[in-house]
Amino acid sequence: MPHGGFSGSLTSPKFDFAVDMGHPFLNRTVDGFIRIGAVGGCKVAAEETFECLQRGDVSKHKVEHALKKMCKEGAYWGTVAGVYVGVEYGIQKIRGHRDWKNAMVGGALTGALVSAVNNHHRHNVVKNAITGGAIATAAEFLTHLTSS
Amino acid sequence: MPHGGFSGSLTSPKFDFAVDMGHPFLNRTVDGFIRIGAVGGCKVAAEETFECLQRGDVSKHKVEHALKKMCKEGAYWGTVAGVYVGVEYGIQKIRGHRDWKNAMVGGALTGALVSAVNNHHRHNVVKNAITGGAIATAAEFLTHLTSS
Known about the structure:
Order of helices and strands of chain A: HHHHH
Keywords (chains A, B): Membrane, Transmembrane, Transmembrane helix
InterPro entries (chains A, B): Tim23-like
Strand content of chain A: under 5%
Low-confidence stretches of chain A: 1-16
Number of strands of chain A: 0
Mean pLDDT of chain A: 82
Oligomer: homodimer
Number of helices of chain A: 5
Distance between the termini of chain A: 25 Å
Structural class of chain A: mainly alpha
GO cellular component, one term (chains A, B): membrane
Membrane topology (chains A, B): Multi-pass membrane protein
Pfam family, one (chains A, B): Tim17
């Protein structure tokens, strides 16, 4: 894994300076945006680097294209994560405790919100809500399994 | 969320009877397969129910098709999860501790393995490895953010 050291040194030191917005809800949302946005950006960076290596040519135009794509995809991942963290925090406050049902409802609401904002049809909004809920539940289960 | 109660009553009681294979590695892998397979199956069930409700007709043929799709997608989700949990457990044992780098490497290896088994091109294997690593890292960060 050549990317291990690369993204480790890029991201680890930055994340210690968490932005303080004065409220845990905002802190979490912004933290989610920055962290997951960085992950999304790193993913595009790794993909574009691999494509450049495979083609064997690096031009100014391609680097610019890669940077734009990194920003765009990073912002998208960050927004989805920010919405999810915010929604999950709200559900946690309302329900009073935390389990996989929070993740499911949070993922479903996030999927619905994100696809509604992107002007999809009502049909797709429901499908994205179902997919979002399923993915969030699966991620919740998996993290518990690997951390136990 | 009409699906909350439905999948809650379907899945919660089952998961308490964990299969004991005699070794934590096998236990986790099987547990991951069952849990995430159930999540994948529930996702397809919810999607197919929604489609039936929207079209307004339920035939025997469609129910059979939905059941087949549930099994197929459930097995796929379960396999990916089982591989991920197994790989992550191995990495954790080798590295001796647990952080987001485990999730990243585990996700990348799982993405590479699953797409290599599915006979994709070398190009796609690397892309899936990158995507898998990014998704696993994002899930790890998100679960930490929402649980802290």
